[in-house]
Amino acid sequence: MDVEEAIFESGILNACTNIPELSSTNSSTTSVLSHGNHLPRENPVDHDTITSAQKQSMNEKQRKLFRYVSHWSYMKMLDHETLPFNIFLTGGAGTGKSLLANCIKHEVEQIFRTTLPSADCVTVLLLTFTGTAAFNIHGQTIHSALAIQNTKLPYVPLGQDTLNTLRMKHEHLKLIVIDKISMVDINMLCYISCRLQQRKASPANQPFGYISVLIVGDFFQLPPVRGKPLFDADPGSLVNLWSLFKKWELDDIMRQKNDTEFAHLLNRIRILRKCDNIACADEFTLQERLTSRQETYPENALHIYSRNIDVTNHNNYMLHEYCHNIQTIYVVDVQYDSKGQKRKRKEPITSHDSYLLVKLEIAVGAKVMLTTNLHVSDGLVNGVCGIIEYIQTTESSTLVTVNFEDNSVGKKRKLLQPVTSDLTHHSLTGVVIKPHAETFVYRSKIITRQQFPLKLA
């Protein structure tokens, strides 16, 4: 049975049509479910205005899945043995996948709220693969939420102390939502399932530890890095968890309602392979939008290139064209011998693939990007961009402050960072970025590398 069949068979289109947030009128009627036990919802419209407006803006296909999950939540409250669901929510760009996922998360949290001993209890985990995506959706990375360090199979169980902590944090967990699923590989999904099984001490025949899972994304987007996409699993494999999921596809474009022609063009390009030719009409439309390097050319706009060398060339051009007093900061590599004695290497190791640059050229006013996750919940994540506000170099240290494009990035760090004379004297408002340390093995030697986790952007 697919998701749509389950929706109609459950009768929820009749049972849940009174959900206040889905009504365009401001009715205060309490909604009930017609499956025997009537459960009036406490504070049925106790949501902020934006969330209510978002729920009312959903199209019919979005509402069907929303009602299905809402109905499941009520059934789960009545009967803890209610079977979990595994749903794959997909669709092209702008079809409202993220909106629907957020509305579902909010609804499930509201339904189970009255059953919890504390408002801090977690009933829904919103997860994604990268730190940037986690901050953008106000969620967590899969790695941090489920204490996953690596995903090499066979599965490595958690130690008892960490496991106990995880059990306490997720004691009331009912649903996991995984966004940007195209970046999650087979091994990672296996680890997610095994971690949830271990958390609940559930048998192997209960994937995901009897927790419902909603995965969200589009497999035409970014694939896993050095991993197999979920749909590429061997049908006979023990880790073929992908076969458990039922697809629910959104096809109405919501984001570009006022420019559906261009939106449909983007979705046609989305499914092309490298060997496919683009339609002549689509190519003509794109050619019309090409911009030449005239006086009005927006050089400060974000530029996207397909090759790293082009990225480097553009960044270097912008740095030397628009910035002054450019400073070069070299990486510091410290090598440890078998006795634990350390010494600074005369030459840095250039062959090591690292997020810390061997040579970092920066200047006040230069646009930079963080290259690692420093603090996900504070928005200090790999890929977040900002402008360098201040650089101070002394014999012993270098101080760099960055004003990030999103004002909410680094708020917590700014509250905790010490107020120095430099910060107050120069009226600095940016986030202090310190050198970051990375440890790796090179030719059987332990190396600790220190550098600012920044690069030009």
TrEMBL record:
EC number: 5.6.2.3
Domain DNA helicase Pif1-like DEAD-box helicase: 59-260
UniProt GO MF annotations: 5'-3' DNA helicase activity; ATP binding; hydrolase activity
Top EC class of this enzyme: isomerase
Keyword ATP-binding tagged: yes
A GO biological process held by the record: DNA recombination
Ranges for region Disordered: 27-46
Keyword DNA repair set for record: yes
Annotated PANTHER family: ATP-DEPENDENT DNA HELICASE
Family of this protein: Belongs to the helicase family.
Protein name per the record: ATP-dependent DNA helicase
Phylogenetic classification of the source organism: Eukaryota, Metazoa, Echinodermata, Eleutherozoa, Echinozoa
